[in-house]
Specification:
By secondary structure, this protein is an alpha/beta fold. It contains ten helices and 16 strands. Strand 1 and strand 2 form a beta hairpin. The two termini are 26 Å apart.
């Protein structure tokens, strides 16, 4: 089977993270594709109903971890609307860029080597929802290796991702007191109004100069149009370039104070992924630049990946080694076919150099 054939097999098996049966089916297909190329079946690791796959190749000490995921953000049925296709040098289909092409590339890269002793491939099934069941597995595996290569899609223009922001996620719940909105609103404590105060306070925690974004996102409050809301809540997405900023925002979130008399605030959540800082990837990017037969560029991006976990443990990590294309999580998701061969060859060269 060609690389394009294997990408098609993976993309045409839909695998939204929240559908456990779909993720299990995708794990079966991914295992079949990997086994056919590597000659070894993976360990199937099921945690909280989610299926992750691990190939530990050879018997020597662990050297290189290839890390990816087979779940996507696309619901079942998306293929009927956005089918897999290759036309005019562009490959399309839900999850093709993020990141089923990268999964196929790692199989083909390792299969092309004469020996893969010391190489581990880990393909998880819950990255798109924050890796709740795979984080411990990823971190336990990473610290046994000398380097981690993440085959998420590249940044714009094919740049490798040498910096990723860390992420924190919060839910802020506002507790008030209900009353009739027309007869006696003064007897109530309006959770919607309290939410408005807190949303503005949270938004002010952002620091554009430091690259810190603090964005209130989903908001809900109230039950009926004629009742002072007794309960409201909103979620907050935080992105930071360094751990100091992640700690600053976390401390500020936990110090939020109610504005309205009689209201109460509850903050849950916190840091999810530490930042992937340049110091974690600089040496590996230099190695990649020397091995590539073409000019490589690097980029800092706001999105996080499982590479944040491995970098946060101090394991050298290089990300964005998968497909060149764009449109992650969008209907224009695509992969440039002409870049598949050189990028897969680069990945193979990196693995060979370090293993």
């Amino acid at each position: 089977m060609t690389l394009l054939d294997d990408i098609e097999r993976l993309v045409t098996c839909e695998s939204p993270s929240t559908d456990l049966a779909a993720v299990a089916r995708s794990a079966d297909v991914t295992a079949e594709v990997g086994t056919a190329l590597l000659g070894v079946e993976p360990e199937r690791i099921v945690v909280d109903g989610r299926t992750h796959l691990r190939w530990r190749l050879g018997s020597g000490r662990r050297k290189v971890l290839l890390l990816g995921h087979h779940d996507t953000v696309w619901p079942i049925g998306t293929l009927a609307r956005i089918p897999f296709e290759v036309r005019d040098g562009v490959l399309r289909g839900p999850g093709c860029f993020d990141m089923k092409t990268g999964v196929a590339m790692m199989f083909h890269a390792v299969a092309s080597l004469g020996s893969a002793d010391g190489v581990t491939i880990l393909v998880t099934g819950d990255e798109e929802i924050g890796s709740p069941s795979s984080r411990e597995l990823i971190e336990t595996e990473a610290v046994q290796h000398e380097a981690v290569f993440v085959t998420e899609g590249s940044a714009d223009g094919g740049a490798l991702k040498t910096e990723r922001k860390g992420t924190s996620m919060y839910e802020v719940t506002l507790h008030g007191r209900a009353s009739h909105a027309g007869l006696e609103p003064e007897r109530g404590v309006n959770a919607t109004v309290e939410a408005a105060h807190q949303i503005l306070a949270v938004a002010r925690l952002a620091d554009p100069a430091a690259g810190t974004t603090v964005v209130p996102t989903v908001l809900s409050a109230g039950t009926t149009t004629n009742t002072v809301p007794a309960l409201g809540r909103f979620t907050v997405d935080v992105r930071v370039r360094d751990l100091d900023e992640q700690l600053r925002v976390d401390e500020a979130m936990r110090r939020l104070e109610p504005v309205l008399d009689g209201s109460r605030i509850e903050v849950t959540g916190g840091p999810n992924r530490p930042p992937l800082e340049l110091s974690s990837s600089a040496r590996l990017f230099g190695l990649a630049s020397g091995l590539a037969g073409f000019e490589l560029t690097q980029a800092a991006v706001g999105g996080a990946s499982d590479g944040n976990f491995t970098a946060g443990l101090g394991v050298p990590t290089l990300d964005g080694l998968g497909a060149v294309g764009g449109g992650a999580h969008a209907e224009n998701e695509h992969v440039l076919v002409s870049e598949l061969a050189p990028r897969t060859a680069l990945l193979a060269a990196l693995v060979k150099e370090l293993s």
